[in-house]
Amino acid sequence: MIDELARGWAETKLRACVDVLDSQRVPVNSEERAKRKGDVPYYGATGQVGWIDDALFDEELLLIGEDGAPFFDKSKPIAYVISGRSWVNNHAHVLRANSDIVSNKYLKHFLDSFDFHQYVNGTTRLKLTQAAMNRIPVRLAPRAEQRRIVAKLDKLLCTVDTCQQRLVKIPVLLKRFRQSVLAAACSGGLSADWRVQKSIDDEWPTEPLSELFKMSNGKSLTAIKRRDGDIPVYGGNGRMGNHDAANADGQVIVIGRVGAQCGNVHFVSGKVWVTDNAISLEAKREVEPAFYAFFLRAQNLNQLSAGTGQPYLSQEILGPIETPIVSLAEQQEIVRRVEELFALADQIEARYAKAKVHVEKLTQSILAKAFRGELVPQDPNDEPASALVERIKQRDNTNKSSNRNAKRAALATGW
Question: For the domain 10-140, what is the CATH code?
Answer without folding.
Answer: 3.90.220.20
